[in-house]
Amino acid sequence: MLIRRVRVGRNRRAKSVHWQPRWSLWFYRGLQFSLLPLVALGSIALIGHIKHSEYFTVHSVKVMGDIGQVDQAQLQSTIVGTVHGTFFTVDIARCQQAITELAWVKEVNVRRVWPDTLVVRITENQPLAHWGKNKILVDSGELLPNYSSELVGVPVFTGPTNSSGRVYAMYQKLSSQLASIQLQVGDLALTPRGEWQLTTSAGMVVKLGHDHVVRRLERFTELYPTLVEERSGVISEVDLRYRNGVAVRWVDE
Fold this sequence. Notes:
Layout lengths: L21 H30 L8 E5 L7 H11 L9 H9 L4 E9 L3 E8 L2 E5 L3 E4 L4 E3 L10 E3 L5 H16 L5 E6 L5 E5 L4 E5 L3 H18 L4 E5 L7 E4 L3
Parallel strand pairs: 1-3, 4-7, 7-8, 10-11
Antiparallel strand pairs: 2-3, 4-5, 5-6, 8-9, 9-10, 11-12
Helix pairs in contact: 2-3, 4-5
């Protein structure tokens, strides 16, 4: 008789095995994948409903910034004409672009503030000088219409067409020189013949000619303290167009 040796070990617990047909596993997996698009579509539909819901209407627009020159009626009309839709769908970029195109607007930022407000922050161009009778030269280099008669404290420039940048550059040079003798530029003109002439805020006319303008004014600033010291009175005009001299006219002459 053949006897096999049997090794006796510890008793092991029998594991319970739940058998499930293969077709059932495939069914449940297929059901899960088929439901995913439906859930996604439902989420999209819900988001779309919320975005267009009347409960999220824009109820207020707050305009911020130091606004003095922007036409208030035009600004209000532009905002009303571009703010359409709900809090979520209003076209921020379109609104910003429309406001930027208004005269005197340098920069604009429009943002949403939950739950129903738009905040419009405007930065205006800063006036540098009057240009002629009805324009203003601003810090962006543009010539803009002057809507305000209360704009004071800025010089008056005149010059040929497209010369505003050149005139302002000259103004910066001359005004710094005059400041050394406590004088200010009131008017600065570039004539059609290319000659420069300034008038101080006190009314003194200074003729500077075509060339070497900065050097000529420097010569005057060196001479000015001696002129007012030697003679009491008010200077009405100074002609610096001479090569080796200066012509001075006093108010009482």
